[in-house]
Amino acid sequence: MKVTGDYSGDHNKMKDALNSTIDSLNGILGQVSVAIEQVATGAREVSSSSQALSDGATKQASSIQEIGASLNEVGAQTKQNAENAGQANQLSESARDTAEEGNKQMKKNVDGHGRHQQIFNRDFENYQSD
Q1: 81-84 contacts: CB < 8 A, separation 24 or more?
Q2: Please, are residues 126 and 10 in contact by the beta-carbon 8 Å criterion?
Q3: Residue 16 and residue 125: Cα distance in Å, rounded?
Q4: Given pLDDT bands bounded at 50, 70 and 90, which one contains residue 9?
Q5: For 38-63, how does the pLDDT look when each residue is reduced to its tens digit (9 = 90+)?
Q6: pTM here?
């Protein structure tokens, strides 16, 4: 979205400033989008690793119980690790969700800016025609 039209003097400076602001916001949104995708990718990797860790930990716990009662403590620790991995997964998902919501809010802000810009352009054109 850009302010278009031929303006002179201060109006042209205003148009250039608005266009520069829009370009900057678009750049920021692009960077935010990339960062969100990186966080989401990291969250998926952590989730996958956590699930693999949890699966392995459960199998280990079964094997350890067969070895004997003296190794029960190792099995309990493995179970705790699996729970911690699940909590880490939940935190990762929460971070991803928060980042996605932030992106949605930023998009709403940019969309709102675009509507304000349209109103400004309309009002400016009406002002010039008067």
Answers
A1: 81/53, 81/57, 82/53, 82/54, 82/57, 82/58
A2: no
A3: 16
A4: very high
A5: 999 999 999 999 889 888 988 887 77
A6: 0.38
Look-up of token digits 């928060």: 98
- Say what the pLDDT of residue 71 is: 65
DSSP string, the chain: ----S---THHHHHHHHHHHHHHHHHHHHHHHHHHHHHHHHHHHHHHHHHHHHHHHHHHHHHHHHHH-GGGHHHHHHHHHHHHHHHHHHHHHHHHHHHHHHHHHHHHHHHHHHHHHHHHHHHHHHHHHH-
What tokens appear for 33 in the block? Answer: 């989008």
Residues 6+ apart with CB under 8 A from 72: 64, 65
Q: Domains of the chain: which residue ranges? A: 39-106
